[in-house]
Amino acid sequence: MNDHTGKNSFSKDEYQTDLIERGYVGQMTKATLQKGNFPPPMKFLFHTLLMCVSNKTTAINEIPLKIQYLGYAIMAEVDFNYSREIFNDFVKKLNNINEKKKPFLLFPRFLSYYLQKKILMDSA
Fold first, then answer.
1. Cα angle, residue 59 at apex, residues 55 and 62 outer, rounded to 5°
2. What is the pLDDT of residues 11-51, one digit of tens each?
3. Is residue 80 part of a domain?
4. Closest-CA residue to 78 (of 7, 29, 17, 30)
5. Facing residues of 80 across strands?
């Protein structure tokens, strides 16, 4: 992840063509892709991303657009500004806290891990 120079999004043609070439076999008419339509290595990558950096709590087979972008950036080895997405989502969750619905805040663990690695790499 190189947030300073990383992209914020990709054109639909750019990443969808690449995903099809890598083995995606489903329809790409909707923004959400199905994890089950990927070959096993990509299915595992998207499953891991959904578990580690997604706040998704239902329909775990569906891959939202921001996770598609992250997966594509990892596979294509393209810099992607994912910390912006994490931060914006985190702020949105905090702004919507109320007594009835508690926010799902998995991101602090991911951010802590990322920042620790970044600090260790910069100090070496």
1. 85
2. 888 888 888 899 999 888 777 888 889 999 999 988 888 87
3. yes
4. 7
5. 7
Q: Global pTM? A: 0.68
Sequence-ordered list of residues with C-beta below 8 angstroms from that of 39, at least 6 positions apart, any chain: 22, 23
CA distance 86 to 102: 18
Q: Does residue 57 sit within a domain?
A: yes
pLDDT digits (tens, 9 = 90+) for 41-68: 999 988 888 877 776 666 778 888 888 8
Q: Is position 5 within any domain?
A: no
CA distance 121 to 99: 41
Q: Which domain holds residue 27?
A: 12-123
Phi-psi region of 107 (alpha: psi -120 to 50; beta: other; left: phi over 0): alpha
Judge contact between 69 and 78, C-beta under 8 A: no
Q: Is residue 1 part of a domain?
A: no
